[in-house]
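Before relying on records like the one below, remember that each one covers exactly one chain. Contacts with other chains, cofactors or solvent are not represented anywhere in the record.
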Amino acid sequence: MNKSSKGLGFYLLIILGVVCLTFFLNNLWMDNNDYRTYEDYRKDMEDGNIVIVEIQKNAEVPTGILEVTLKNGEVKDLYVSDTSKEASLLYGEGIPYREGDVLRESWFVTYLVPSLIILAVVFFLFTMMNNQMLAAAER
């Protein structure tokens, strides 16, 4: 195995480590205040534990997130496939709710992040090719 292929394995190992660290930290910082099942949400509704529900629709209508505030101050999230059905159910039960605007990704995530990733990959490739050329020239 020549020296340049050993360097490539090192770079790939570093990239793999960064990706694993990113996933680990993302899972560590996420809050786990989601309802486990739809039945738990309905039980809270029937028991009268719900104070208010905020409905956040996704760009893929009619899906969305229900942000449920309970009487004890706890806030739980529930991902639903039909927000309009849930709104009519809440209205029928007499539970107050608010409907927010459709959540959309920002231009930063849509345009800038992919461009920066492409630039980083191109920079990495040029650096790696330059190192290989220098190693070949030294022989």
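The mean pLDDT is 85.
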